[in-house]
Structure formats: C-alpha cells, structure tokens
Amino acid sequence: MELKDIKQVYFMGAGGIGMSALVRYFLSEGKVVAGYDRTPSPLTDKLIEEGALLHFEENPELVPDCCKRPEGTLVIYTPAIPDNHKEWALFRNGEFVVKKRAEVLGIITGDKRGVCAAGTHGKTTTSTMTAHLLHQSHVDCAAFLGGISKNYKSNLVLTDKSDLVVIEADEYDRSFLHLKPYIATITSADPDHLDIYGNKENYLEAFAQFTERIRENGFLIMHEGLEVVPRTKKSVTTYIYGREKGDFHAENIRIGGGRIVFDYISPWQKIEDVELGVPVSINIENGIASMAMAEICGATADEMRAAMKSFEGADRRFDFHIKQDNLVLLSDYAHHPDEVKACAKSIKELYSDKKVTALFQPHLFSRTKDFYKEFAQSLSLFDEVILVDIYPARELPIEGVTSKLIYDCLDENIQKSMCSRSDVIKTVEQKKNEIEVLVSLGAGDIENDIPQMKEILINR
User: For a FRET experiment, which of 158, 272, 339, 353 has its CA 20 to 30 Å from that of 434?
Assistant: First the structure.
C-alpha cells in the first residue's frame, strides 16, 4: 500500500507519545483516524478534540465501519498490545495492511533528510531542541517528537518549506533501525530495555547497526566516551561532542542566578553567550548536540542563539510546576538509573541550599529487576526518597520484584519511605509543610497527580 492510497488509519495504542504524533500527522493529511487505547489521558483528550475517533474499551464493535474494510485501511500498532486483544485479532487475522509505528515513521520520512537523535537518555530534549532551532531559523523543518514541545504545544511540527525532518530515534524494539538518517546523533548508550536486547552487547550492537543506516554523505555526531563502535559508510563524516571537549563543546560556562550561559565551539565558529531557556546543567550537552545538528543544516549563529534562549523544553523533562524562593515542584520523565542520576545532580546544583525530595515511580518490572541497585545509588543522591509501586506498562508482574528491592538498597543516611500508588496524594498532603523542593520522577502515570500536588503545596 502506498501512503497516497490510504483512506483511513486505525491505531492500536493511539495514546502513546510516539503514536500520537502519527495520529496528528494523518489527521493533517485529511485521513479518517480512529483507534483504541487502554486509558484516557490529557493527550488522548486533545487528540479527540483534534478529530481522532478514539475509544478506551476493548471492543471490536466500537471500531468504525470504514476501518473494518481492508481496502484503504492502514493499521498501526504498538508492541505493547497483547496478542489476545480482541480488536488486534480482528485486524491481524484479516487482510489488513498492518505496520509497526516505527515502520510507518520510516516510510513517511524516507524521502526526507532525517535529523535523528538517539540514545538511552537525552534524545527527547535534544530532538525537541533541534526542531526548535531549525523551525525558528530560515532553514525550517518538520518534526516527529517523543515529547510534547512546550513551544509548539505538540509532538508534531509540520512545514511546506523544508525537506528536513527531526525525528526522535527510539531504540526500544529496535525501532530506530527503520530510519535512514541524514544526520544521526547518539547522546548516550547505557544499557536499557534488556527485556528486548538480553544483554549490554546486543544493546550496543543495535546502535552500531543504526550508524550503518546513515545515508551517503551524511553525518554522525556521538557523545564522547560512548562504547558504541560505529559502522558508517566511508562518505559519512563523524564528529564527537561533549560538555567541555570534542569537535563541538562548550567553553566559559557560567551558572548562577537561575541562568546558564556558555560559549559554543564548533569546527567552524565560536558563538558567544548562548543562554539556555531551560537552565539545567544536562541541557548544556543537549544544547551542544542540538546546535551541532542545526549548524550542519545551515542555521546561523544569531538564529541559534535566539532559539536556544527561547526554548521552553518538553513536557515531563525537568518540567517546573511551581518555582518560588521557598517552594519548588517539578516533574521529570527519568526512568533509567543514569537519567535519575543526571536529574539529581542538576537539581542539587540548582538548589544546593534546600532539601530535595524525590517521589519515584519505577517503570517496568523487568527494568527494576535489572537495575534496582543502580536505581538505589542514583536515588541516594537526593535528601529524601518516597518510592511508589512499580508502573507495569506492557508487563505482567515478576515474582519478588517490587519497589522494595530499591528501598532496601538506598543509602541509610537519607530519609526514605514507601507508599502505594493510591496513596501518593495523601503522602504529599502529610508532608506538605516540610517540602522545599519536590520532584516527581518516572515514565508512568504519576504525572497525572501533578495538578493535585501543585494545589496542595501552593495552598499549604
């Protein structure tokens, strides 16, 4: 099936952040878009407002009649959908064209110049920042993002002026191997998704395979110190970047007064006084990678400097909800030990004189089983840790794997406690008067409680 022949698109798992960008894309193309998701959310509410026909009950009778005809129907699914799902069986056993999200993204962007950010962590902010740098410049771009850009209130950016498309290249389920980048950046390669890859060696091998997919005369930009051994074509130019060393790096870093300013150094120029719109230290490196990609694509120094300052970030990536002298509430998507560590260091750097409390909801039983000791080490950088039940996402429970595995390994010198998912709000209410800085961490549904947390803390 050619994309031009598609009349209607049905999504199995429409509310995922990656899937929802494709929902928006096909709506923009004038297609009938329908789908199922397990639970409603603010994102699915927005998609319904935008025209998507979504439902949340596993029921083939709720599938629109036009989507039950194989002719002209494309079905896009996420691997998180179980094999015994009744609607999934309807499509899988019929004569439908059925594709994974990553396959469709690869097809849509196949004739474009893909500007791809990959990595265990950092890829959402880096891709969102790169999209802003390019979209605000004379170069322009489209973008399929893995987070909601605060600048554009969406995870989809469209253009009719440029063949550049910024893509968050997700390594889960080897999805990024469906892409053919013009520019690929690898921000990090700390083993993750071991339920898919099995071991560190296979994980690193997938990133090496990703570098093989970079086009002739393309570019690879790697964070210094990564264990990935690239296998690029001879015509691909490889650069290294880092905070203070590499082909692209920062000099004269100034942190203070709620601001971070640095000078950007590239093989071609020095751009002085670049200010971060989201002033956390990890964004120095994300910013360097983003500026490197934007510079290669032709954005000017003045355009990049202005866009870096006006960048508002992505939802759930170091996302401030209260920012007062005596009270701070923020949320972060960190769900890997190295992400938790980077978040902790950034917050402690910003608020060295305050008590920082982390409310952490582990994501996946398998990830907790693989990394509970590492999670404990990272979380022990906070002053207080409140551990919530594991968010299962696509998984069934694993015997003996609970948040207590992490709890038992936490440093004895910090305050620590556990609470059930249903008691999160009650716990915040009980602790409201002793909270100075509270960060809600994780990729699960704890984000849904942020509005209530905010109300409790502001009105304490």
Answer: 339
